[in-house]
Amino acid sequence: MQKSEASEKRIANLVSYIECLLREENVRESYQRHFEEFAGLESLEVFQAFRQILDQGYDPDQVITEVSRVILATQREDDFEEVRPEDPFLQELRAENQTMMDLLAGLRPLFRQERTPERDQKIVAAMQGLRQVRAHFVRLQNIFFPTLEHKHHALSGLTLLWAWQDQAETVLEQSLATFADPKMPTEQLNRMAGELFGSYASLPFKEERLLYTAADKLLDETDWEAMYQQSRAYPTAFDIRQEVAEIDFSQLKDAAAQGCFSSGTGSMSFEQLNLVLNNLPVDFTVVDENNRVLYFNNPPYRIFPRSPAVVGREVKNCHPPRSLDKVDEIIDAFRQGRQNHARFWISVKDKKLLIEYFALRDAEGKYRGVLEVSQDITDLQSLQGDRRLTEWQE
């Protein structure tokens, strides 16, 4: 049997196994019917199987509950080797994961202690450290995921890992609230502790067995170097790397350095245009009529992280799975001409953020894409009275 045929057979077998799990059939019997074909499964084939499952219309929130079970069933300890142990980007990611696992290990003895207000306060303080893992997620979602998606269509299934990360953060916030409530029953505390460990402790395993191994097969040295250079513009979790570098984004993509932008309202050099776009008090991203990212600006203080790796990425892969339906709904309304503008606002920590979508149409009214604009309006909400030009220095 040729390799492609053998691969297709392994993928079809895994799809069948996942479907059994989703139908809640007997786990042991399902495993026994499928396990012989698990031998030789590669990480990319696992992604291809999950991509087929998602294409069948299964709810991603339902599918992610089976990811760990599938990995445990298909990935054997004796055939696994850590990929690219010397790669600086992976070294940082692995160091973050190890620090996270150490933090979780420190929580275990606290859970075994007799419950007291002091014990619960210690648990809350330790759990708060897990919030730093957000920096780890941001680099995966904005650098690693889009780089891989450019290499193989099946890697759009990475939305499952994004959904798992979102779920982990939700469980963390629920756990913090639960342990901060002295009236919460002990049974509820124990349940939340189990969910927290289940969400975070399995993340390194998923990354090693699926993400890093797939990347090792699909990416070349230029890709790995580009990911590391882009990652240096982002902080790490737990101060694994303390400095954040100023990245010259213009060097990451070839662009016309000469020439002039001209329109009916004036003209400027491309250098001047770039300065204007990157000093606007907003983040904006341009998506074309085919739902692919064309461009984003790079203001001094970004609201939402962006990396050059997202250019060319399908917009559906740039949003958490839980919000994807609404994004599709807005784009469809723009494409069909039913709407031209969508506005909403959210509170993030102590900031109020305004997010707006604008339909882009050419002179004939044809749909050409979407402009997404995000702005921190916290200070604007507090404005009162007048402040005139003569008072600009105060």
CATH domain class of the largest domain? Mainly Alpha
- Number of beta-strand segments: 7
Distance between the termini: 78 Å
Q: Approximately how much helix is present in the residues?
A: 40-55%
CATH level-3 fold name of the largest domain:
Four Helix Bundle (Hemerythrin (Met), subunit A)
Q: Give the SSE order as H and E letters.
A: HHHHHHHHHHHHEEHEEHEEEH
Q: Output the radius of gyration.
A: 24 Å
CATH architecture title of the largest domain: Up-down Bundle
Model description:
By secondary structure, the chain is an alpha+beta fold. It has three domains: 77 residues, no CATH class; 152 residues, Up-down Bundle (Four Helix Bundle (Hemerythrin (Met), subunit A)); 104 residues, PAS domain (Beta-Lactamase, 2-Layer Sandwich), CATH 3.30.450. The chain is 49% helix and 12% strand. It is built from 15 helices and seven strands. Strands 4-3-7-6-5 form a five-stranded antiparallel beta sheet. Strands 1-2 form a two-stranded antiparallel sheet. Helix 1 runs antiparallel to helix 2, helix 1 crosses helix 3 and helix 6 runs antiparallel to helix 10. It is globular and about 70 Å long.
